[in-house]
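Following up on my earlier thread - several people asked me to post the actual chain instead of describing it. Fair enough. Here it is, all 127 residues.
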Amino acid sequence: MRFMKPTAAALALAIGALSFSGVAEARNRHHHNNGGAAAAAGIFGFAAGALVGGALSQPRYPTYYYQPAPVYVAPPPPVVYRPAPAYYGRPQPWTAEWYAYCDARYRSFDPRTGYFLGYDGQYHFCQ
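Reply from S.P.:
Thanks for posting it. Predicted structure:
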């Protein structure tokens, strides 16, 4: 299928050249050239048809005009996981670390008194 147009164009030009040379040969029968002009015209027509058909079968524009441009996307920022603070033993009462520890551990922690409400309904000092 790829070479169908060039072949058809070459054959059409070759047939046209042969018919034209046949008309010219009929007018010039008295020269006795034995059809050499007809063969030359056929070869010329076939070559011209091959050239024209090959030119017509080429794409009109290069294919890179129709391909979409690449899209470059920046990679997402790296996810940094920070470990939770590790407590090796409990901090000393009334320090900044102690306040942070008790506030994170007990929802009912009262920083003014240092006590929290336990599940038993009693207040306990955070240690």
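The chain has three helices and two strands. That should answer part of your original question.
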